Amino acid sequence: MVARLGDEAGEVRLAEVFASLSLATDLGNGFPLEKALRNSLLSTRLARALGMGGSLVHDTYFVAMLRYIGCTALDYEMGRRGSRRCPWA
């Protein structure tokens, strides 16, 4: 199953939208570009290596991408920087 946005001629895959947004969040959080993309790629490869089916691999990609939404995803990184809260809070 491929989630798509838009009409027939200008369809954009939802995964492409998430990938684009991940670049902006990487930049905004001070991470190297494509950190979220790398994590998603590693997660989907691990899911395939474990023999998971297509829909679980699909879900794994989106869960890995959604990890970066919200402050809780950055707890480890913020702790290493000595910060106790989100930089935008």
Question: What this model shows, in words?
Answer:
With 89 residues, this protein is mainly alpha-helical. The chain has one domain (14-81). 56% of the residues lie in helices and 4% in strands. The chain contains four helices and two strands; from the N terminus they run ββαααα. Strands 1-2 form a two-stranded antiparallel sheet. A hairpin with a 6-residue loop joins strand 1 and strand 2 (12-13). The longest helix is centred in the first third of the chain and has 15 residues, at 14-28. The protein is flat. The termini are far apart. The mean pLDDT is 78.
Fill in the keyword field for this structure:
mainly alpha; 2 strands; flat; 89 residues; two-stranded antiparallel ribbon; 4% strand
Give me the Rg, rounded: 15 Å
Biggest sheet features: 2 strands, antiparallel
Tell me the count of domains: 1
Secondary structure category: mainly alpha
β-sheet strand percentage: under 5%
Helical percentage: 55-70%
Number of strands: 2
Low-confidence stretches: none
Concise summary:
The protein is mainly alpha-helical and 89 residues long.
